[in-house]
Amino acid sequence: MRILVTGANGFIGQALCPRLVQSGYMVRGAFRSADRFPLQRGGVEYVVVGDIGPETDWRRVLAQIDVVIHLAGRAHVMEETSEDPAAEYRRVNTDATRQLAKAAVQQGVRRLIFISTVKVNGEESPDRPFTEADIPHPADPYAVSKWEAEQALAQIAGTSALELVIFRLPLVYGPNVKGNFLNLLNFISRHKIFPLRNLKNRRSLLYIENCIDVLMLAVHHPQVANKTFFISDQADLTTPELIRALTQSLDRRCNMFPFPLGGLRILAKTGDMAEHLWHKKLPLNSARLQRLAGSLMVDSRLFSDITGWHPPYSPEEGLKQTAGWYVKKTGYE
Fold first, then answer.
1. Are 212 and 297 in contact (CB under 8 A)?
2. pLDDT digit string (tens) for 146-191?
3. Are 143 and 120 in contact (CB under 8 A)?
4. Is the confidence at residue 15, as pLDDT, over 90?
5. Which of 82, 157, 211, 280 has its CA 20 to 30 A from that of 299?
6. 12: which residues sit within 8 A by CB, 6+ positions away?
7. Superfamily of chain region 2-169
8. Coil, strand or helix: which one is 192?
9. Residue 322 has pLDDT above 80, yes or no
10. For 70-207, where are the alpha helices, taking DSSP H only?
């Protein structure tokens, strides 16, 4: 079986491609630029596709491919420079994905696995975990573009023989992580006390090795075709629990004390004002507080019920491995 992985040099792609090769698959990895990778590496055939969009010609990349795992996309941009972010998200995440699916049908690809986001369902799930039966409610341009991509894929799959599998993932973490989780590790390494003990929120996370295990299963399992799934470590954590686990893995004390949520909101507003007026970043702003204090949970039982899958790694194991990588990367003591 021949598998195309788009975004092969991304966080998930770099972990997935070697596993696919080890399992005996012929793997082609598509990425934007050849600057970081040779065209042959670790048994993977790498192909440069440039910036993806509605005009991308996928035919050469898809030649003789059986399964596509579509990881490439425009994720949250911390320092936005585009004059029209919504249009840029739609160009990369929606239009390029639609173009890929059309070309996959023409090339006789059997299955397309699409990596979407829990944010398709919303920014928070305060009362209960999201399930696949919940109505999508994307709240920002990134989530909207992913939801539009899901709909475009469903339409194409519904009128062709292409099998579609969609995964709406929560925050994925592990060695080589970037983005918000790396920011959290940096925050913990720089601060000794945390006024967060009162927080009772719960968040679903997904360790990278659990994520890879799911994708490996989705390549061939017959009963996941044409379905959408949530996936997680199946053990949601509060923010205090997460910080305690990370500080313990970093071999340092966790000095957690209670502080009113209202007071945290005032501090967050102060952070917003400092960024707006003086272009100075404080440890807390409203966006960071939402990630720290809000609940975002998913129910991943559907995938387990259909496939019998259970996470091979616990959050404790995943967080320990991630902290160990961070120590080696930064020389943190």
1. no
2. 999 999 999 999 999 999 999 999 999 999 999 889 988 998 888 8
3. yes
4. yes
5. 157
6. 71, 115, 172, 208, 211, 212, 215
7. NAD(P)-binding Rossmann-like Domain (3.40.50.720)
8. coil
9. yes
10. 85-89, 96-106, 141-158, 179-190
Of 157, 189, 142, residue with least CA distance to 68: 157
Answer yes or no: are the C-beta atoms of 202 and 292 closer than 8 Å: no
H or E element in which residue 173 lies = strand 171-173
Check 25, 46, 142, 173 and give the catalytic one. Answer: 142
Say if residues 116 and 149 touch (Cβ distance below 8 Å). yes
Which tokens belong to 12?
Answer: 């998930």
Rg, C-alpha atoms of the chain: 20
| Phi, psi (rounded to 5 degrees) for 56 | -60, 130
Distance CA(278)–CA(261), nearest Å, equals: 25
Least confident of 121-135, 165-179, 189-203, 275-289: 275-289
CA distance 312 to 298: 18
Residue whose structure tokens are 């387990």: 304
Q: Strands across the sheet with 67-70, in order?
A: 40-41, 44-48, 26-31, 2-6, 67-70, 111-117, 163-169, 227-230
Q: In the 8-state DSSP scheme, what is residue 73?
A: -
Among the residues of the chain, which ranges form H helices? 11-22, 59-62, 85-89, 96-106, 141-158, 179-190, 208-218, 239-249, 261-278, 286-293, 301-307, 315-330
Is 142 marked active-site? yes
Instruction: Give the orientation angle of helix 179-190 with respect to helix 239-249, to 10 degrees.
Output: 70
**Token pair for 118:** 């829990």
The residue written with tokens 């579609």 in the block is 164
Measured in whole angstroms, the distance separating CA 286 from the mean position of its chain's CA atoms is 22
For residue 323, with 0-12 CB atoms within 10 Å meaning exposed, 13-18 middle and 19 or more buried, which class applies? Answer: buried
The SS3 of residue 129 is coil
DSSP H helical ranges for 233-281: 239-249, 261-278
